[in-house]
Protein backbone atom coordinates (compact mmCIF):
# COMPACT_ATOMS: atom_id res chain seq x y z
CA UNK A 1 0.00 0.00 0.00
CA UNK A 2 1.32 3.50 -0.87
CA UNK A 3 2.07 6.16 1.69
CA UNK A 4 -0.96 8.20 0.56
CA UNK A 5 -3.19 5.14 0.89
CA UNK A 6 -1.91 4.44 4.40
CA UNK A 7 -2.48 8.07 5.35
CA UNK A 8 -6.06 7.98 4.03
CA UNK A 9 -6.72 4.74 5.92
CA UNK A 10 -5.32 6.21 9.16
CA UNK A 11 -7.44 9.34 8.68
CA UNK A 12 -10.53 7.22 8.13
CA UNK A 13 -9.85 5.20 11.28
CA UNK A 14 -9.36 8.42 13.28
CA UNK A 15 -12.68 9.77 11.99
CA UNK A 16 -14.42 6.56 12.99
CA UNK A 17 -12.95 6.88 16.49
CA UNK A 18 -14.05 10.52 16.68
CA UNK A 19 -17.57 9.77 15.35
CA UNK A 20 -20.06 10.57 18.10
CA UNK A 21 -21.90 7.53 19.43
CA UNK A 22 -25.07 7.96 21.49
CA UNK A 23 -24.64 4.43 22.84
CA UNK A 24 -21.24 5.38 24.28
CA UNK A 25 -22.72 8.65 25.55
CA UNK A 26 -25.51 6.83 27.40
CA UNK A 27 -22.96 4.48 28.94
CA UNK A 28 -20.91 7.47 30.10
CA UNK A 29 -24.01 9.08 31.62
CA UNK A 30 -24.73 5.93 33.65
CA UNK A 31 -21.14 5.66 34.85
CA UNK A 32 -21.12 9.37 35.64
CA UNK A 33 -24.27 8.94 37.73
CA UNK A 34 -22.53 6.24 39.77
CA UNK A 35 -19.52 8.53 40.32
CA UNK A 36 -21.85 11.39 41.30
CA UNK A 37 -23.57 9.19 43.89
CA UNK A 38 -20.16 8.18 45.27
CA UNK A 39 -19.09 11.85 45.45
CA UNK A 40 -22.35 12.76 47.19
CA UNK A 41 -21.75 9.96 49.69
CA UNK A 42 -18.25 11.29 50.43
CA UNK A 43 -19.64 14.78 50.95
CA UNK A 44 -22.37 13.37 53.19
CA UNK A 45 -19.80 11.58 55.33
CA UNK A 46 -17.81 14.82 55.58
CA UNK A 47 -20.91 16.70 56.72
CA UNK A 48 -21.63 14.04 59.35
CA UNK A 49 -18.07 14.38 60.65
CA UNK A 50 -18.39 18.17 61.09
CA UNK A 51 -19.05 19.64 64.55
CA UNK A 52 -22.81 19.80 65.19
CA UNK A 53 -24.83 22.91 64.46
CA UNK A 54 -27.57 24.08 66.78
CA UNK A 55 -31.03 22.74 65.90
CA UNK A 56 -32.44 26.04 64.58
CA UNK A 57 -29.25 26.74 62.60
CA UNK A 58 -29.37 23.27 61.05
CA UNK A 59 -33.02 23.82 60.09
CA UNK A 60 -32.15 27.14 58.39
CA UNK A 61 -29.24 25.48 56.58
CA UNK A 62 -31.36 22.60 55.28
CA UNK A 63 -34.16 24.86 54.04
CA UNK A 64 -31.88 27.33 52.23
CA UNK A 65 -29.24 25.04 50.75
CA UNK A 66 -28.31 25.12 47.95
CA UNK A 67 -29.09 28.84 47.79
CA UNK A 68 -31.15 29.83 44.74
CA UNK A 69 -31.79 33.46 45.65
CA UNK A 70 -30.08 36.38 47.33
CA UNK A 71 -32.18 36.11 50.53
CA UNK A 72 -31.16 32.44 50.80
CA UNK A 73 -27.48 33.43 50.58
CA UNK A 74 -28.01 36.06 53.29
CA UNK A 75 -29.73 33.49 55.52
CA UNK A 76 -26.85 31.05 55.05
CA UNK A 77 -24.35 33.79 55.83
CA UNK A 78 -26.13 34.71 59.04
CA UNK A 79 -26.39 31.03 59.98
CA UNK A 80 -22.79 30.05 59.24
CA UNK A 81 -20.90 33.23 60.17
CA UNK A 82 -20.25 32.32 63.80
CA UNK A 83 -19.69 28.66 62.84
CA UNK A 84 -17.10 29.65 60.20
CA UNK A 85 -15.27 31.85 62.73
CA UNK A 86 -15.03 28.88 65.09
CA UNK A 87 -14.26 26.23 62.44
CA UNK A 88 -12.83 28.17 59.42
CA UNK A 89 -10.91 25.23 57.93
CA UNK A 90 -13.90 22.89 58.18
CA UNK A 91 -16.22 25.31 56.38
CA UNK A 92 -13.56 26.06 53.74
CA UNK A 93 -13.11 22.32 53.12
CA UNK A 94 -16.88 21.92 52.81
CA UNK A 95 -17.03 24.70 50.20
CA UNK A 96 -14.09 23.11 48.36
CA UNK A 97 -15.75 19.69 48.21
CA UNK A 98 -19.17 20.99 47.21
CA UNK A 99 -17.80 23.45 44.63
CA UNK A 100 -15.65 20.72 43.08
CA UNK A 101 -18.57 18.30 42.84
CA UNK A 102 -20.83 20.93 41.27
CA UNK A 103 -18.21 21.96 38.70
CA UNK A 104 -17.19 18.39 37.90
CA UNK A 105 -20.76 17.44 37.09
CA UNK A 106 -21.78 20.83 35.60
CA UNK A 107 -24.36 21.46 38.34
CA UNK A 108 -25.46 25.12 38.30
CA UNK A 109 -25.23 27.27 41.42
CA UNK A 110 -21.51 27.82 42.03
CA UNK A 111 -22.05 31.61 41.91
CA UNK A 112 -24.03 31.28 45.15
CA UNK A 113 -21.12 29.48 46.79
CA UNK A 114 -18.75 32.22 45.59
CA UNK A 115 -21.01 34.85 47.16
CA UNK A 116 -21.18 32.81 50.36
CA UNK A 117 -17.39 32.51 50.50
CA UNK A 118 -17.06 36.28 50.24
CA UNK A 119 -19.76 36.76 52.88
CA UNK A 120 -18.04 34.39 55.32
CA UNK A 121 -14.38 35.24 54.74
CA UNK A 122 -14.36 38.78 53.32
CA UNK A 123 -13.28 40.05 49.91
CA UNK A 124 -9.61 39.05 50.01
CA UNK A 125 -9.74 35.67 51.74
CA UNK A 126 -13.03 34.86 50.00
CA UNK A 127 -11.48 35.64 46.62
CA UNK A 128 -8.45 33.44 47.34
CA UNK A 129 -10.73 30.59 48.44
CA UNK A 130 -12.99 30.91 45.39
CA UNK A 131 -9.99 31.15 43.05
CA UNK A 132 -8.58 27.94 44.52
CA UNK A 133 -11.82 25.96 44.56
CA UNK A 134 -12.91 27.08 41.08
CA UNK A 135 -9.55 26.03 39.64
CA UNK A 136 -9.67 22.68 41.46
CA UNK A 137 -13.25 22.14 40.28
CA UNK A 138 -12.40 22.97 36.67
CA UNK A 139 -9.40 20.62 36.76
CA UNK A 140 -11.61 17.91 38.25
CA UNK A 141 -14.03 18.34 35.33
CA UNK A 142 -11.03 18.23 32.96
CA UNK A 143 -9.99 14.91 34.51
CA UNK A 144 -13.50 13.49 34.35
CA UNK A 145 -13.65 14.46 30.69
CA UNK A 146 -10.59 12.29 30.09
CA UNK A 147 -12.29 9.40 31.88
CA UNK A 148 -16.02 9.72 31.17
CA UNK A 149 -17.29 12.89 29.51
CA UNK A 150 -15.55 12.47 26.12
CA UNK A 151 -18.34 10.42 24.42
CA UNK A 152 -21.02 12.77 25.78
CA UNK A 153 -19.14 15.83 24.53
CA UNK A 154 -18.64 14.33 21.07
CA UNK A 155 -22.32 13.41 20.86
CA UNK A 156 -23.51 16.86 21.94
CA UNK A 157 -20.88 19.22 20.52
CA UNK A 158 -19.20 17.40 17.62
CA UNK A 159 -18.98 20.45 15.32
CA UNK A 160 -18.15 22.89 18.07
CA UNK A 161 -15.34 20.64 19.35
CA UNK A 162 -13.80 20.46 15.87
CA UNK A 163 -13.89 24.25 15.65
CA UNK A 164 -12.28 24.50 19.09
CA UNK A 165 -9.65 21.95 18.03
CA UNK A 166 -8.65 24.05 15.02
CA UNK A 167 -8.41 27.21 17.14
CA UNK A 168 -6.23 25.42 19.70
CA UNK A 169 -4.00 24.09 16.90
CA UNK A 170 -3.47 27.65 15.57
CA UNK A 171 -2.41 28.82 19.02
CA UNK A 172 -0.40 25.77 20.06
CA UNK A 173 2.60 27.90 21.08
CA UNK A 174 0.56 30.38 23.13
CA UNK A 175 -2.26 28.35 24.68
CA UNK A 176 -2.03 30.03 28.08
CA UNK A 177 -2.99 33.41 26.61
CA UNK A 178 -5.81 31.79 24.65
CA UNK A 179 -7.28 30.03 27.70
CA UNK A 180 -7.09 33.24 29.74
CA UNK A 181 -8.84 35.09 26.89
CA UNK A 182 -11.61 32.47 26.76
CA UNK A 183 -12.13 32.63 30.51
CA UNK A 184 -12.24 36.43 30.65
CA UNK A 185 -14.61 36.77 27.68
CA UNK A 186 -17.98 35.04 27.08
CA UNK A 187 -16.75 33.46 23.82
CA UNK A 188 -17.37 29.89 25.03
CA UNK A 189 -19.26 28.54 28.07
CA UNK A 190 -17.02 27.51 30.95
CA UNK A 191 -18.57 24.03 31.02
CA UNK A 192 -17.63 23.51 27.37
CA UNK A 193 -14.06 24.72 28.00
CA UNK A 194 -13.69 22.36 30.98
CA UNK A 195 -14.97 19.32 29.09
CA UNK A 196 -13.53 19.98 25.63
CA UNK A 197 -10.00 21.10 26.58
CA UNK A 198 -8.53 17.61 27.17
CA UNK A 199 -10.30 16.32 24.05
CA UNK A 200 -8.60 18.89 21.81
CA UNK A 201 -5.21 18.53 23.48
CA UNK A 202 -4.95 21.51 25.84
CA UNK A 203 -2.26 20.57 28.43
CA UNK A 204 -3.41 20.49 32.04
CA UNK A 205 -0.83 23.08 33.15
CA UNK A 206 -1.97 25.67 30.60
CA UNK A 207 -5.59 24.84 31.39
CA UNK A 208 -5.16 25.19 35.16
CA UNK A 209 -3.10 28.39 35.08
CA UNK A 210 -5.33 29.92 32.39
CA UNK A 211 -8.38 29.12 34.51
CA UNK A 212 -6.83 30.58 37.67
CA UNK A 213 -5.91 33.85 35.95
CA UNK A 214 -8.80 34.09 33.49
CA UNK A 215 -11.53 33.47 36.08
CA UNK A 216 -10.00 35.94 38.53
CA UNK A 217 -12.26 38.88 37.52
CA UNK A 218 -15.52 36.96 37.98
CA UNK A 219 -14.27 35.30 41.16
CA UNK A 220 -13.21 38.61 42.67
CA UNK A 221 -16.50 40.26 41.70
CA UNK A 222 -18.49 37.47 43.35
CA UNK A 223 -16.38 37.41 46.54
CA UNK A 224 -16.45 41.20 46.81
CA UNK A 225 -20.21 41.24 46.27
CA UNK A 226 -20.59 38.54 48.93
CA UNK A 227 -18.69 40.76 51.35
CA UNK A 228 -21.20 43.54 50.58
CA UNK A 229 -24.46 41.61 50.36
CA UNK A 230 -26.40 44.51 51.87
CA UNK A 231 -25.59 46.55 48.75
CA UNK A 232 -27.24 44.00 46.42
CA UNK A 233 -30.90 43.67 45.56
CA UNK A 234 -30.54 40.63 43.28
CA UNK A 235 -27.93 38.53 41.49
CA UNK A 236 -28.23 40.93 38.53
CA UNK A 237 -26.46 43.59 40.63
CA UNK A 238 -23.27 41.56 40.24
CA UNK A 239 -23.04 43.03 36.74
CA UNK A 240 -23.76 46.68 37.44
CA UNK A 241 -21.26 49.25 36.04
CA UNK A 242 -19.31 49.51 39.30
CA UNK A 243 -18.84 45.75 39.61
CA UNK A 244 -17.98 45.41 35.91
CA UNK A 245 -15.34 48.14 36.23
CA UNK A 246 -13.92 46.35 39.26
CA UNK A 247 -13.86 43.07 37.32
CA UNK A 248 -12.18 44.77 34.36
CA UNK A 249 -9.46 46.10 36.65
CA UNK A 250 -8.81 42.63 38.10
CA UNK A 251 -8.86 41.21 34.56
CA UNK A 252 -6.14 43.64 33.46
CA UNK A 253 -4.03 42.57 36.44
CA UNK A 254 -4.63 38.90 35.54
CA UNK A 255 -3.51 39.53 31.95
CA UNK A 256 -0.37 41.42 33.03
CA UNK A 257 1.85 38.27 33.20
CA UNK A 258 0.81 37.36 29.65
CA UNK A 259 1.64 40.87 28.44
CA UNK A 260 5.04 40.78 30.13
CA UNK A 261 5.74 37.36 28.62
CA UNK A 262 4.93 38.60 25.11
CA UNK A 263 7.03 41.72 25.66
CA UNK A 264 9.99 39.63 26.83
CA UNK A 265 9.70 37.24 23.87
CA UNK A 266 9.42 40.16 21.45
CA UNK A 267 12.52 41.75 22.97
CA UNK A 268 14.44 38.49 22.58
CA UNK A 269 13.32 38.17 18.96
CA UNK A 270 14.42 41.72 18.17
CA UNK A 271 17.76 41.16 19.87
CA UNK A 272 18.30 37.92 17.94
CA UNK A 273 17.46 39.64 14.64
CA UNK A 274 19.83 42.50 15.40
CA UNK A 275 22.58 40.00 16.24
CA UNK A 276 22.07 38.24 12.87
CA UNK A 277 22.22 41.53 10.97
CA UNK A 278 25.55 42.33 12.59
Summarize this structure briefly.
With 278 residues, the protein is mostly helical. The protein is built from 12 helices and no strands.
Features of this protein?
single chain, 278 residues, mainly alpha, 12 helices, 0% strand, globular
Descriptive notes:
It is a single chain. The protein has twelve helices and no strands. The model is unreliable at 10-17 (pLDDT under 50). With 278 residues, it is mainly alpha-helical.
User: What does the main sheet amount to?
Assistant: none
The strand count comes to 0
Mean pLDDT: 80
End-to-end Cα distance, whole Å, is 51 Å
Sequence of secondary-structure elements = HHHHHHHHHHHH
Helix content: over 70%
- Please give the count of helices: 12
- Would you tell me the structural class of the helices and strands? mainly alpha
The general outline is: globular
Radius of gyration: 22 Å
Task: Please indicate the percent range of residues in DSSP E strands (runs of 2 or more).
Answer: under 5%
Instruction: Report low-confidence residues grouped into runs of 5 or more.
Output: 10-17
Blueprint (SSEs and pairs):
Elements: H1 3-18, H2 22-49, H3 55-64, H4 70-86, H5 88-104, H6 110-156, H7 158-170, H8 175-184, H9 190-200, H10 204-214, H11 216-227, H12 241-277
Helix pairs in contact: 2-5, 2-6, 3-4, 4-5, 4-6, 5-6, 6-9, 6-10, 6-11, 8-10, 8-12, 11-12
Amino acid sequence: MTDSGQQQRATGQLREQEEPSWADARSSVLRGAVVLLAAAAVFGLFVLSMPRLKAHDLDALVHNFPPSSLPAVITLRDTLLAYAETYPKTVAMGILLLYSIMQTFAIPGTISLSLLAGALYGSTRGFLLVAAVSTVGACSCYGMSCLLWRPIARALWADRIEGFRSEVAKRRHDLLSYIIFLRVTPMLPNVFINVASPIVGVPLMDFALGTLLGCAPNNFMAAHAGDHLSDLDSFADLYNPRMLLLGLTVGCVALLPVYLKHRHERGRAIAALAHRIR
